[in-house]
Amino acid sequence: MITGEHIFMDSNLEITDRIQAGIIILDISGRVDAATSSKMEEELGKKVDSGAINIILNLKDLSYISSSGLRVILASLKKVKSSGGKIALVSLQPGPAEVFKMTGFDRLFPICDTIDGALELFQV
Amino acid sequence: MVFELERLVDLCDGVAVLCLIAYFLTRTRYASVFVTRNFSPFSVLFMTLIGGIFYLYGILTGVEIGPYFISIQVLGPVIAGLISGIAGGFLAGVLGMLLQTATGNPIEPAACLITLLSGIIGGIFWQINRNNIVRIPHVFFLGCLIGIIQFSIGETGIRPEILEPGEILEGILDIFLPTIAGLVIFVFIINNLRTEAENTRRSYKIEGELQAARQIQLDSLPGQTFTWKSLNLAASLIPVSYIGGDLYDYRKLEDGSLYFALGDVSGKGVPAALLMSSTRMILRSRLRETKNPCALVSEVNRSFLEDGDNKQFLTLITGHICPDTGEVTFCNAGHPPPFIISRSGTYGLEPDGNLPAGIMEDEEYISRKLTLKPGDILTIVSDGVTEAERGEELYGFEQVVQRLNEKPFFKPEDVVKFLNKEVRQWTGDNPQSDDCTILAIGYYPEQ
């Protein structure tokens, strides 16, 4: 696996980024809650503002996401969607998966088991 | 030049006493006048007393340089003037000199003039700065001015023709350094107090406003228990902060059914609370036209998207229940699904796939119908319950079901009490992380 560059790290949330087949992949591990969501907003916002419209969020190590975290991902989704892009989620764990399902957010994002699967989505 | 460290130390003693006075002044109940600057005749007299006594202290601890007597006694009237105005400075000088005479220390006319002038100049600075904090550079300037006055007035002024050049420098050091240092430190301490008091006042004001807002918010909620026909309802809302973004509501409808709602605005505190109260009003006003839960949610959705900042959203369950049949129609917009506590056990409903309000325009919300059996309790909670945290561990939707299954519940009130207790026990010493809201409606038709 190609490991990316740490772009943000604290005891609760760690974000690294890398590019694979021309698509930005953000590996998000830890918790996205009221305390850390602003950091996530900043990092995700930077990618979107720099013109990225197709983004894969690798959530293999995401243990918890609160409604403020959903809000951040949603805001980015709205931006990339308006430019014809999309955000795909990969390896959603049971806890966060339940939150996505409960809030109907699972309808807003393609959810894939593997990064390769998500990459294929963007190749079409 | 003979630099006598000992002498400097003596004068530093004076400055230290000045700091002590400033400290005590700022800790007494009279200190509030430094903040409000509303000086009563009493507080002017108080400062006169302090200034006068300090003057005497200065006289008693002064030192002699050659033929001259140097001390920091003038700081007494200067400070009295600086704090309470011209009258205070002048009177402190007069009092100081009276005390001086009374203790058997003679006064020379020039020294008398210096003293009174110092007090008046201190007072003039107070006039100029009237409504502002006295700035340190101003005080520096004031110190220099007082030093120059001491230096140049009368026979006792330090005259180059009398003193050796080394002694002149020494005199300058002895007069200017303690005067400036004393004034700067004194004003610094007083300024600190003013800033601190100002901040405290502001935070009290904000806290008072928040406390009032909390009361308004809690008062705007309908009562925590309600019984009507065959329905018995209990509810609770515990905001994590003064005010919160959760809401519950219910009311009797004209067609004989009961409207209910429980919602959770994303985020916490004041911004969430503002959206919460407008949501409640939107729902209530739309309710006059329709009780269709999907129409109610759509209205909130529209309002969030049209008027919101596009960042906030709201998870909401709203619906109505018929007291005759136990039939419930509700729309769940992205909220943790309701639980049904029945005599045969508790189960959680499935999510309906609706998005929260405020996410997508033209979202087609779907509603769901179910019929409560006699004794069933429909229970809706906010994620403050399902996501109550112990360390990183969440209480969880499943645990709600599991714990509710462990004992029979006959009254909605017991369910609310039980769940609140569960959350408290689960979080333990951890601070509550989210607003915690519970609504339970039991159906008890006469049999």
- Fraction of residues in H or I helices of chain A: 25-40%
Low-confidence regions of chain B: none
Work out the count of structural domains of chain B.
Answer: 2
**Structural class of the secondary structure composition of chain B?**
alpha+beta
Strand content of chain B: 15-25%
String of helices and strands of chain A: EEEHEEHEHEH
Main beta sheet strand tally, sense and closure of chain B: 6 strands, antiparallel
Q: Characterize the quaternary organization of these chains.
A: heterodimer
**With helices defined by DSSP (H or I, 4 residues minimum), what is the helix count of chain A?**
4
Give the integer mean of the pLDDT values of chain B: 86
Largest interface, with counts of residues having CB < 8 Å to the other chain, equals: A-B, 22 and 29 residues
CATH fold-level name of chain A: Transcription Regulator spoIIAA
- CATH fold-level name of the largest domain in chain B: Phosphatase 2c, domain 1
Write down the CATH class of the largest domain in chain B: Alpha Beta
Based on Cα principal axes, name the global outline of chain A: globular
Order of helices and strands of chain B: HHHEEHHHHHEEEEHHEEEEEEHEEHHE
Task: Characterise this structure.
The complex is a heterodimer of chains A (124) and B (447). Chain A is an alpha/beta fold and 124 residues long. Chain A has helices at residues 37-49, 67-82, 94-102, 115-123, and strands spanning 5-9, 13-20, 23-32, 54-58, 62-65, 86-90, 111-112. In chain A, strand 2 (13-20) and strand 3 (23-32) form a beta hairpin. In chain A, helix 1 packs parallel to helix 2 (67-82). The radius of gyration of chain A is 13 Å and the shape is globular. With 447 residues, chain B is of the alpha+beta class. In chain B, 52% of the residues lie in helices and 17% in strands. In chain B, helix 1 (5-27) packs antiparallel against helix 3 (41-61), helix 3 crosses helix 5 (86-102) and helix 4 (75-84) runs parallel beside helix 6 (109-129). The mean pLDDT of chain B is 86. Classes of the chains: A alpha/beta (124), B alpha+beta (447).
